[in-house]
Amino acid sequence: SGRWARCMAIVKEFEEKCGTPEGKLKQIADAMTVEMHAGLASEGGSKLKMLISYVDNLPTGDEEGVFYALDLGGTNFRVLRVQLGGKEGGIVHQEFAEASIPPELMSGTSEALFDYIAEKLANFVDEEEQIFHDLASGRQRELGFTFSFPVMQTSINSGNLIRWTKGFSIDDTVGQDVVGELTKALKRKGVEMRVAALVNDTIGTLAGGRYTSNDVALAVILGTGTNAAYVERAQAIPKWHGPLPKSGEMVINMEWGNFRSSHLPLTEYDHTLDIESLNPGEQIFEKLTSGMYLGEILRRVLLKLAEEASFFGDEVPAKLKIPFVLRTPEMSAMHQDTSSDLRVVDEKLKNILEISNTSLKTRRVVVELCNIVATRGARLAAAGILGILKKMGRDTTNESGKKTVIAMDGGLYEHYTEYRKCLENTVSELLGAENASSIFFEHSNDGSGIGAALLAASNSLYV
Ligand code: ADP
Ligand code: MG
After folding, report:
1. What's the predicted TM-score (pTM) here?
2. Which of these, 165, 361, 396, 403, has the minimum number of CB atoms within 10 Å of its CB?
3. What's the per-residue H, E or C state across 357-383?
4. Is 0.95 exceeded by the ipTM?
């Protein structure tokens, strides 16, 4: 029928606009490398902030003692207590607690957000075991603070928020030292704790990854948002005017979510998503690749199909008009529905969008759209990784046969199998089999929390 033909035309056009052929991905990788150079050359020289982390030493394995970590990333936050055993000792003991951030706090006041966090931390500290007191007598507790938003660091344990991302929007925090904000809240709540290190999740994941494998040289997060960090030669950072670190190295927080390039395959859906977002014009790479947005892109395509081609029948399902109603975990469940009659798709459409009685043909199109959106995101993330490997000179097999391990983390990478497979396969495809044989992906499960604790240890007052 004409209706179905119109649907297919919309799907086909979307698919074409989302195309990521190898040649395009290589152009994107090259653009990433160029922007990396520009961001390292001067402050504000690129959309890529290439932030200096003040981490010039990654964990060695000798770290010892009990340390706390607090991980504020997006929708959830975690508090950890880690006991490090020193040389060969590894992680002797760890405990954690998790809480979600109430949505109203994501756009309230700075004080309310940090008070909430400090209170959760206070509860966690209250449950502290005797072992901590025995180990730490006379010592102040120390904390690694993983804060996964763009921060202009001023030292290893201070830094000012550049802007919020991932749905947070609290005006009075912008420009403030987030360690100062946390420290004030800890005081208000009566928690005795010193923030020894401020890092973001990519830096934490890199540090946590390095603790378990010496070959970890970069870290990529794919969760609510996306970001990457890697080890740069200090000499190759023209904008760094401080003393050259002894190690000769400096970890760079790329803030790659804000990458953009004329080569990116943007569609009308991406443009409207961006314009209607809390941060229009910003985080374009993130809006194509990360968990906060994939489901929302899918919703927008489904809405267009419903409005312009009666994809779900004569009426446009009301729920489909609600921004962000379709979350990426639900999209991933539909995408990976292996039942012959696509039962999961049927159930999700019913439960989330109140769309019932869809035909199998319709459900197949939904799966195809999930595939288009996820494939584009995963392949773009792969191109970004190629860009970093090129910048590091690790995109070709060197004589030394040196391994490169990429520490990966984030809920999207962890749970969306199709996305993860596509990303890893695309990196291999772009590198070629020979070069790809020295590149390894490692899921660094909660590396960012442990990494922050490790960095608190190496920046402790008591070392
Ligand atoms: P954050 O990025 O907020 O620190 P996570 O790394 O835990 O947190 O990532 C959470 C994000 O991962 C969610 O917002 C969601 O987009 C994505 N995610 C979680 N579970 C799944 C899933 N099963 N399939 C696809 N994406 C998922
Ligand atoms: Mg996180």
Report:
1. 0.94
2. 361
3. CCCHHHHHHHHHHHHHHHHHHHHHHHH
4. yes
